[in-house]
Amino acid sequence: MSDTKTQIIQIAEQLVRSGGYNGFSFREIAAEIGIRSASVHYHFPSKEDLALAVANRYKQNFFEALGDPAPDGGNTKSQLAHYGQVFQDSFKASRSACLCGMLSNEIALLPAVVKQVLVSFIDENLKWLQQAITYGASDADSAKVKQQAQLVYAALEGAMSVSALMQSDEWLQSVSNLVAEIVTPD
Amino acid sequence: MSDTKTQIIQIAEQLVRSGGYNGFSFREIAAEIGIRSASVHYHFPSKEDLALAVANRYKQNFFEALGDPAPDGGNTKSQLAHYGQVFQDSFKASRSACLCGMLSNEIALLPAVVKQVLVSFIDENLKWLQQAITYGASDADSAKVKQQAQLVYAALEGAMSVSALMQSDEWLQSVSNLVAEIVTPD
DNA sequence: TTTTATCTACCTATCGATAGGTAGATAAAA
DNA sequence: TTTTATCTACCTATCGATAGGTAGATAAAA
To answer: Is A166 exposed, middle or buried (0-12, 13-18, 19+ CB in 10 A)?
Structure first.
C-alpha cells in the first residue's frame, strides 16, 4: 500500500475517533497531507470506502495487539488484565475513544458495510473473552461466561469513552483492574 | 416553555442520539415540525444553545427517572437493578444510545458548555452509585466502592451503545443483571 | 404599544463528488 | 532503439447540496 494511502487512513482514523463519522472530511485529510481532496478520492472513491478501510484496519490492529487468548501459563485473571491493557495502550496512543465504540452509536449515519465491521468486531471480542474466561475451567457455565464476556467488553468500551471525555486514563485503569479481579470462570 | 420550543428539543434529542452532534441540523428539525430553520434560530440562537438545552433536559429527565438512592428497604442489589432498569427504559423508549454516552466520545466537536454538562452527568451518576453500593454497609472501603461505581456506569453505557448498534436490548439486560449480582459493598 | 413567533430571502463556508487533464514511470511492440 | 499504450498519482475547476446563521418584514397576542 502506497505511503499516501496509508497516511490517508491514519489521519481519517484519528479524525473519526475524535469526531465520529461526520467528523472527518476529504478536504481536512487532504490539507493535513498536503494534497488536494480530489486526490483522496483517487485512493478512496467514496467516503464509505474510506470509512470501511479505516474500520477494517482498526479491527485488524486491535486483534494483532490482542493476540490469541490463553497463551502458555495464562489464567483468566492475567488474560483479562492483558485485555484491559490493549484498551489502555490504544487510549494512550491516541487519547481518544475506541473507533468501534465511537461508531457503534452513530447507527443513523453509517453505511451498511461499516456497520457489519462493527458487529463482527464485537462478535470477535466476545469470542476472545469467552475463551479467556473459560480457560482452565472446562466445566464453566457457558451462559454465565457469555454474560461475563459482555460485561467486560461493555465496561471497557464505556470506560474508554469516559476517559476520552476526561482526557485521563483513570477510569480505564480502574475499570480494567476491577474487571480482572471479579470475573472468574467459577 | 412553548410547544414549539419543547418540540425542537425533543426532535433534536432524538437526532443527536442517533447521529451525534453533527447528526442534527436546524433544517431537519424545522422540516419535521413544519416551520422554517430561521424560526428554530429564534428559539435557540446557535447550535450550541440548542445542544446545551438538549443535554440539560436529558440529564434532568434521567435523574428524575432515577430518583434518590436507597429508598425505604432498598439494598445494593435492588438499587443496582433499578439503576439498570432506568437505562433499559431509556433504550426501549428511543431504541438509541444514551445522549451523554454518545456525546462523550465527540470531544473534538463539542462546545465547552456542553462538555461540562456531560462531566456533571457522569459525576452525579458516580455519586448516586457510590451511595447505592454503600447502602447498609457504612464500613465499606470507599476506594473500592468508587471503583465499583465506575464499573457499573461504564458497563451500562457500553451495553447501551452495543444495544443501539444491534437494535436489541439483549446486551443491556444481560449486563444489567450481572452487575446487580456481582457488585456488593463488602 | 410592545413583545412574541413566525416568515421570506438571503449569506458564506463547506460538504462529497465528478469531469477532464497531465507528468512521469513502465513495459510491450515495431 | 524508438514508438505506442497503459498505468499511477496527482492536479484544477466545478457541480449540486447542505451547513449554520442573519436582516428585515409581518401579524397576532399581551
So the answer is: middle
Query: Is the CB of A20 less than 8 angstroms away from the CB of B104?
Result: no
Tell me the three cell numbers of residue A71: 497463551
The residue with cell 429564534 is B42
- In this complex, which protein residues place their C-beta within 7 A of any atom belonging to strand D? A 2, 4, 30, 34-39, 42-43; B 24-28, 37-38, 41, 45-48
DSSP conformation class of A167: T
What is the tens place of the pLDDT at every residue in A64-97?
999 987 655 568 899 999 999 999 999 999 999 9
Q: Which of B84, B134, B76, B146 is nearest to A173 (CA)?
A: B146
Kindly report the average pLDDT of chain A as a whole number.
Answer: 92
Contact B98, A104 (CB under 8 A): no
pTM listed for this prediction: 0.94
Q: What is the 3-state secondary structure (H, E, C) of B123-144?
A: HHHHHHHHHHHHCCCCCCCHHH
Neighbours of B175 (CB within 10 A): 30
- Could you tell me the three cell numbers for B46? 446557535
